[in-house]
Structures are given as C-alpha cells and as structure tokens.
C-alpha cells in the first residue's frame, strides 16, 4: 500500500456511488486513488504515510505474539457490527488470549468487482474505529480485486502483532487441576444476530452481536494480579468447541455446570426456534478464562467490572460467570452437568452449524 | 488453527480425491481433520503444535517489520510456480525490501466449497518448501470456506514478521541525488508466464515465472557493506510503476536508460504479441536497489553472484544490471532514455494491465 501523491493527474475523487473495478486492484493510478481516498484517509499514521513495502515498527518491550484471521461473514453488515469491526476485534482478541498487549495490525482486502465504494468506506471506517478503541494501529495493507462472481463482495484478512511480558503468557500448558473456569459474559449473541440478518430466515429480534475487543478485560485480569493460566475467545463452534479443544490440548477434564452458563432469553428463544444449542453458537466478544482456583472470586469481580464498563446494550448487559473447574478425569473431556442434574460429555461440532458467521 | 488430537473419533483421513466442504471451515471436527492432515503435516513447528490463538515467539534482535499481501492469482498453478510459492515469496520479499531479515509468517486461506484437497495439499507443500528456502516459519493460520460460486478456488493471505537492525533500514527517505539504480535481473517473466497459462490466449512459451524469494540477495548487499538506501520488489505494475512510486515518494528524479533494462527474448516477443510494455509487466522475484553511487559496481557484482546461485532456468539465467541514477530534476518523475536516444517520462499504469497476476 503506497501513499505518496502522484505527479500525474489522478482520477477525480471517488464518488460515493462509485463501484470498485478491476483497475482498482491493478497496481496503477486507480488503485492509488482508492488507497488514498478510502484507506489512507482512515488509517492515517506514519507507516501508511511512508508507503513502503512493509512497516518498520518500534522495538517491542517483550516477546512478539503473532496471529491472523480471515473474515468472510455474510451479510457484511449485521445488527451490532460489520465485517470491518469483526476483522479488527477477532485478531485483537486472539492476541489478548495469549496474555499479549495488541499493538499493530495488517489488513488484506479481496474485493469483488462492482462492490460499492460507499460500503467499502463504511467498513474501513468501522475498522479504524475498532482499532482506535482497541489501542492498535493498522500499519500496512494490500488490496486485490477479482472479477464479478469470483468473490462475495468483500473478504478481509487481518494479522496482528502484540507483545507479552515474561511470565504473563497465558497458554494451554499452564492449565492445572483445581483451576477455575469462567466465561466473560453470556454466550451466543453474535451467531444469532448474524443469522437474524440473513434474508429469508424471518427471525425477528432486537439482538445485537457481542462483537467487541476483549483485550481490555484480559489485561485487567493480569494487571489485577490474578494468576491467569489460559484464555480462549469463543468464535466458530462457540463455548463448547473452545472447551473441547482446550480439554484435549491439556489432557485434563474441564467440568462445567451448564446451568451456570449465561444465555439471554433472546438467544435461547432463537436457538430453540432454529434447533441450535447456544453452547455451540458463535461469539465475537466473549472469552473463557482459566485461572488459579483461589483467584476465582476475584476474577469474577474484575470481569463483572469490565462487563459493566463495556456493555453496549443497556437493556441486556452481559454478566460473566464462574462455570466450572479443571479436574483430572476423564482426561481430555468436557463434562457438563445439565439442567436435569445429569452429566453429558460435550463433543466438537461434527460439521457446519452456521456457515460464514465470521 | 488448533492442532491437539481429538478424543472423539475424527473422520477418516482425507482421501486424495476428496473435496473441501463448508463443514471444513465450520470450526468443528472436519476442520480439525483438514488442519491436521493438510496444514499441520506440512507446517510443523512448536507454535502449530501448541494450537493456541496466536504464536508466542522468541524476542527479536532488532526492530520488528510487518507486512502483508493477499494472493488471488489465476490460474493457481502456472509455469514455474503456484499461488502457494507466490504467497510466501511475496511477503518474504516485502520484508527484505525494508532491510529486514524475514522470520515468521501467518497465513489465511479462503477456500471455495468443492476445491480439491489434492490441489490444496500441493499448494500447502509449495508454501512449506518456499518457507524453508526463505528461512521463515509459518507459525499460525486460519481457514475459511465459502459456498460454491462465492470465491474462485483459493485465495491466500500471508503476513510476515521480520526484524531489522539499527542503521540497516532501507526506505524511500534515504534516497539521495547521485545514487545508482540497479535491477536484480531481467523483468517481465512472471506476468508472461501467468498469461501463457491462461486458457484461450494461445500463447506458447517455455518461459517460467521468476517467482522466488529475494531476501538472500537483499541481505547479501547489506552484508557486503554496500550502502543500500532503498529497495523495492517489482510486482503488479512492473519496474515502471515501482520507479514512479519511488520517484514521487522521494520527490527526486529517477533517470534510467531503457536499453539497459534486461528483458529476455521470450518476454519481449510475448509482450509485443500481447501489446504489453515489459517495463509494466509483473515480476515476483526481482527488485530494484538504490545504492550510494560509489557502491554501484560492487552492488552489481554481488547481485550477479546471487543471480548465478539462484538462477532456476539454466537456459536463460537472469542478469542484474545498472540501469540509471538519481537526479535532482525533474523532481518526482521517472525519465527514461529510449532505444532511439529520446527521453520519455514514465507514468503509472492508468488502470488494469493484467488482472489477477498475483
């Protein structure tokens, strides 16, 4: 992404009703116009202005942490968010789950010919807003355009670089028997909000996606001196899939009480209607924290205070909960106590529950 | 991308004739099977094995350098390379152009439902091979699957993290009047090779893409004590566009002798046939180096020795060349002396010359 001004006359500024053409991805003057008018206008910083092949950054105060996600959500705009906000939050959150402070993002756009410049601008503004709110800078990017019918409007990739200080890494190998399992808020809002926005489903709800950066809450736990062993944000596959992955990874039993997992009425109702289990529905602003057992109550307090500060939907604020603990056996399994008091083993999703949810 | 083994029976290993389904991107068991069988098998390292949300890396010995590119080349396989090799080389090369030592890559896949697992494996193997040859590790990734007709087989994003030592940064602001301009080899092979592979063009040639990592050659220049001020790899828009971008960026005149720009016969012939100017045709393994004037000859020697070592096509090895110098005026322009001895100003591509070349 190169930004210096061009000596040859650039095409006129892009009209709001303009559409992206193949030439906007061709590496020439039209691409530069797109970058200047749409991307540089929003992602303004020294690296974008330098217009080099990469961003030469400041040295990091700890170990680098790197992550990436591609976003193909459909529709691009949904109640409570859009693909741009998702693309920033998703990657920021992955860094935060490692105990890292997110710092820099890259972004790669694949745009379908004919996509609206006005929509692109809306998405880019969303990204800029989400980046500012998460305290990260988008320092470099790339734009490709493919022919009509060869993509679905817009796909966005982000990669994130943060840093973690020695001893603050949160990772599966730190999980121990006796650890407490907490969830940062109620689950399933994002999946239901996206489904509600899909045409033809006839699902009426005022529900908004939970899409949000969780880096602040994750940081607050560490700064409060809580011994955080592992964190995992809940995306595709929901809470259940995240727990199953962790259980297999640490080869211990994650035991939870299903009745303690917060699910708001609107999500529970929609899930019943659609035949979905809320434990498997996607989230984009919730995470599981596995902390030293003795720190459980303190962890809950900090999460509650963060939830209070971050809650976007005053009618249904999200409440964190202590949902279980780590045991020795059955190793590699997630044991859930159901509403009837019975125990069931949670499995991974076997296939596809909700395509293109992120 | 999470890799730990699953306690529940995974689906059988993927057959070579299997196709990617939406469920392979759903976050569940089929996705894990795809990741284990295809990605983890090739990108094997401690970070992939840990299966965390991000990769917690070793501290870097200098300033971090970050870059990204998305790849949508069509066709996916072309003479001399494929989208996987391109995705690694493109990002490694962008880091090298900043004077950085490339170290880690992330990768994000967007796959169209119905894409062949065998082709995916081929691409992933290509990436692993290119990464090994460039000395980088692919430490984390993401896979999304979209419905049939909503993408074009496969798009790949890579982001790269490297480091640069103090004083070794190469960037536009270091370019000075009197600097020499060199190109690391003949130009235009990649664009012509990809075009030749497209159906219906009837372009017959034995030409291979120049797709290759250039980090070794860039490093060799710096290690030889050459005062390298700026480097730029030549991708979309070719040599001319890279020079025009640099000229505007540094607000000086880049003066080149067109007759000194190496173009092999097969490229020149194909370009004439297709009505293309080789100076504007894409490359994926060539770069421009702008170095202190006094270092020009030494720079040429080092580039020649690197070209000799790296040449993939014994019949037509690529030769670097000293093609021009930096002057004061006309500021912000690229002045080219043509074969007739006349001078012309090079402009940027006005639109799209060769869509989906990378």
What does it look like?
- Two copies of one chain form a homodimer.
- With 358 residues, chain A is α+β, with helices and mostly antiparallel strands.
- Chain A has two domains: 143 residues, PurM-like, N-terminal domain (60s Ribosomal Protein L30, Chain: A, 2-Layer Sandwich), CATH 3.30.1330.10; 175 residues, PurM-like C-terminal domain (Phosphoribosyl-aminoimidazole Synthetase, Chain A, domain 2, Alpha-Beta Complex).
- The first copy, chain A, has nine helices and 14 strands.
- Chain A has a seven-stranded mixed beta sheet with strand order 9-11-8-12-10-13-14, sandwiched between helices. In chain A, strands 2-7-5-6 form a four-stranded mixed beta sheet.
- In chain A, helix 3 packs parallel to helix 4 and helix 6 runs antiparallel to helix 9.
- The radius of gyration of chain A is 21 Å and the shape is globular.
- Chain A starts with 28 loop residues before the first helix and ends in a 12-residue tail after the last strand.
- The N terminus of chain A is likely disordered.
- Chains A and B meet through helix 1, strand 1, strand 2, helix 3 and strand 5 of A and helix 1, strand 1, strand 2, helix 3 and strand 5 of B.
